[in-house]
């Protein structure tokens, strides 16, 4: 069975309480359980990591190559700042799908640039919780090819 790691970046542990007008009312547990259901329907196994620490995310990306077939990542605020996360993604050969709950291109100017997108296989943003589900489908489709 193919395995996908889903990485949630900083402050996503606060989902459901945090700026619900932007990020919705589902908490991370609910989002992860919806992701698990989607993965099960695609006969893919999924694991999760949430971290508020850039270095932990860099290490998880580097370590993923041995254990997983693809990555789905919401780098959250690091999207707009982290050369280290971008380089970690560029360094691995498994497909990486970038996801965001909100449409970062319709928000503040500083969010309209993703340092991660050029290193990812593709990006999905603006569909709330469904961005993750579409991300899982996209990762699964990349594995079939
Ligand atoms: C986010 C968008 C980022 O700009 C923000 O810093 C987040 C969440 C999203 O999922 O919409 O924390 O990645």
Task: Provide structural commentary.
The longest helix has 16 residues, at 129-144. The model has no long low-confidence stretch (mean pLDDT 97). With 145 residues, the chain is an alpha/beta fold. The protein has helices at 20-23, 28-41, 54-67, 83-90, 129-144; strands at residues 3-8, 45-50, 70-74, 96-100, 122-125. It is built from five helices and five strands, in the order E-H-H-E-H-E-H-E-E-H. The protein starts with a strand and ends with a helix. Helix 2 packs parallel to helix 5 (129-144) and helix 3 (54-67) runs parallel beside helix 4 (83-90). The chain has one domain (3-144): Rossmann fold. It has a five-stranded parallel beta sheet with strand order 2-1-3-4-5, sandwiched between helices. Helix 4 links the parallel strand 3 and strand 4. Helix content is 39%, strand content 18%. The structure holds 1,3,4-trihydroxy-5-OXO-cyclohexanecarboxylic acid.
């Amino acid at each position: 069975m193919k395995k996908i790691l889903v990485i949630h970046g900083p402050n996503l542990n606060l989902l459901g309480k945090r700026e619900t007008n932007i990020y919705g009312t589902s908490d991370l547990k609910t989002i992860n359980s919806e992701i698990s259901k989607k993965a099960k329907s695609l006969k893919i196994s999924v694991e999760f990591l949430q971290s508020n620490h850039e270095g932990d995310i860099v290490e998880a990306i580097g370590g993923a190559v041995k254990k997983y077939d693809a990555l789905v990542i919401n780098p959250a605020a690091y999207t707009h700042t982290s050369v280290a996360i971008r380089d970690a993604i560029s360094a691995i050969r498994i497909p990486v799908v970038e996801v965001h709950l909100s449409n970062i291109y319709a928000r503040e100017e500083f969010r309209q640039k993703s340092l991660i997108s050029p290193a990812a296989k593709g990006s999905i943003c603006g569909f709330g919780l469904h961005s993750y589900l579409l991300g899982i489908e996209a990762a699964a489709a990349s594995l079939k090819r």
